Amino acid sequence: MTASIHVEGLDKSFGPRAALCGIDFTIEAGEMVTLIGPSGSGKSTLLRHLIGLSRADHQSCSQVEVLGRTVQRYGRLLAAGRNQRRRSGYIFQQFNLVGRLSVLSNVLIGCLGAMPRWRSLTGRFNQKERDLALRALERVGIVGLAHQRANTLSGGQMQRVAIARTLVQDAEVIFADEPIASLDPRSAREVMEILQRINHEDGRTIVVTLHQVDVARRYCRRAIALKQGRLYYDGPIEGLTDARLQALYENAGLDELNSHNSRLEPAAPLHALG
Questions:
Q1: Closest Cα partner for 234 from 78, 18, 22?
Q2: Domain ranges of the chain
Q3: Across the chain, which distance is largest between two alpha carbons, in Å?
Q4: Calpha distance 210→213 (Å, rounded)
Q5: What's the CA gap between 9 and 24, in Å, rounded?
Q6: What is the Cα–Cα distance from 106 to 134, expressed in whole angstroms?
Q7: Which residues partner with 219 through β-bridges?
Q8: What is the full DSSP assignment across 124-168?
Q9: For the segment 254-271, what is each residue's pLDDT rounded down to a tens digit?
Q10: What is the pTM of this model?
């Protein structure tokens, strides 16, 4: 298999506090991997380094590669062209939609990286791009909301729009930072099933940070667990035994230790989402 992501010796500090310490791992193309760990363990910080939104410590002998391109080396971010940038998509916890625009317009934003610069500056989308956006909305089950304003949607619907945007972008790697953290149990299940289906059907690599261990166990085959900024576990999801989880969350509060009881609604067949 071909590596989608390679991380070597990643260190990150905020003042005297070490957020990431010597992180090393490789993710192969087509994997769906969860990043888990207690609050403050470094999950979101790590994800931001993978997408190039943060840089490692200058004195660090670190390197981050995504899809064969070096994102950063030795604490220095390396510039990427438009075609390289659009190969990686990012799904935020708070959706990052333009509320006053329609659902369709928000999804079409994913086309900007592939458009001629003069059209991207004026936002002139052709029929082929509009059809692509409508097909993406159909895949996530909300094509009927295409002309509705984004700020009228529920949280689960907004997250589906964000996923559709990465499909239109044609991202080969999708990074999702706590995509179900603010969703109700039914919406959380639907969002995770959509991501799982995209992984299965398209072979896109997906890296998703989660608090809920039972969700990770249900939808991901591999887990990378962080504890106090260090790599605690990297392997098959079934290797995260109750004993390992107890040790992972040993200094966390009781609520967080029990966060794997997320009360997701029972899983439905993937085809049920249309």
A1: 22
A2: 1-82+212-274
A3: 57
A4: 7
A5: 6
A6: 11
A7: none
A8: ---HHHHHHHHHHHHHTT-GGGTTSBGGGS-HHHHHHHHHHHHHH
A9: 455 555 455 455 544 433
A10: 0.88
